[in-house]
Input
Amino acid sequence: MISVYLAEDQSMLNSALTQIIELEDDLRVVGSAKDGQSAWVEIMHSKPDVAVLDIEMPKQTGLDIADKIYEAKIDTKVIILTTFAQKAYFERAVAASVSGYLLKDSPSDQLIFAIREVVQGLTRFDPELVINMVSAAHNPLTAREQSVLVEAVTGGTTHEISERLHLSYGTVRNYLSAIFSKLGVRGRLEVIQVAKENKWI
Output
């Protein structure tokens, strides 16, 4: 029996995924949460075979939890669920040694298949994500500039970005200026358009 922990902040999707997983004879949902902090505490306690984590949740993201699982050397395989194929998120997930990275609009049987695969030591990345990574190969931004860009796309102010990334206000402002200069744009709206067209976010 494969034990699965599910962290998804959307109630309807959380319930639906739980039911889908529980329909399988060899899978059992041992817990679920709608925020990252609760999920991390329960994962530490239960140490499930697989943790299926939404990438964006209150308090802690799925990637935050993946980092902690990796650092704590907990023998739990991680599958990240995401809505958008963002290069920076994908790279961070790979750095945290996640075993699976799937888009939320993928067929449910792909998630079931991925759970069984990762328990066997295999990896399962959505093909669309891989294609986007190839398309983003000529991104001129550094990894840190890319992370600042991703935060800027969410609409955060420079001060908010500095808090989230633990950087000074001036450092974030300098990164934004460097991004604008490299991409030949004059402001956030233009940089977002260029980045999306090139699939850098």
Q: What stands out?
A: Residues 169-183 form the longest helix (15 residues). The beta strands are 2-7, 27-33, 50-54, 77-82, 100-103, 124-125.
